[in-house]
Specification:
single chain, 155 residues, eight-stranded antiparallel β-barrel, elongated
């Protein structure tokens, strides 16, 4: 299973790098809440629309210590944009996740898994947008819901 996830991530990264010369790009920053340990985090992401209505999003989230536990996530998600108006879009998302959880005084736990969720995006103007996401992370012994609120700059 780990080999499959790693190969899939490499393949998606290859597709992303081959088509990096066209399409809308954006950098985003977000505030996150993860349910497993009631952790609050900050995330950064990059979005690239490689085909109309399909975009790929590598993302990093750092979670602040809660109940003597530190954590971070690295995700690679695919979004399918459904434009409901010229200002608003909803999108289902699916992707891969790597989580590192480190309880105080113990070695860290590494998990590979999947993300499944939905998001909504409101375009403020041609450069800025606000978005919300809800996803379920499927990780061995660590399934959790992750809520995100973010702001992005499009270029």
């Amino acid at each position: 299973m780990k080999k499959f996830l790693i190969l899939s991530l490499v393949a998606l990264a290859g597709v992303f790098s081959m088509s990096a010369a066209q399409g809308e790009k954006a950098f985003g920053a977000q505030f996150n809440y993860a349910s497993k340990h009631s952790m609050v985090g900050l995330g950064l992401n990059f979005q690239y629309e490689f085909v109309n209505n399909f975009r790929i999003e590598p993302e990093f989230i750092y979670y602040f210590e809660s109940d003597h536990v530190n954590a971070f996530n690295v995700n690679l998600n695919l979004h399918y944009l459904i434009h409901t108006s010229n200002k608003f879009a909803i999108y289902p998302l699916a992707g891969f996740s790597y989580a590192r959880v480190t309880p105080d005084g113990f070695d860290g736990v590494n998990r590979f898994g999947a993300n499944v969720g939905v998001g909504g995006e409101y375009t403020i103007n041609n450069r800025f947008a606000f978005y919300v996401e809800e996803r379920f992370q499927i990780l061995k012994d660590m399934n959790q819901s992750v809520t995100g609120l973010g702001f992005k700059y499009k270029f």
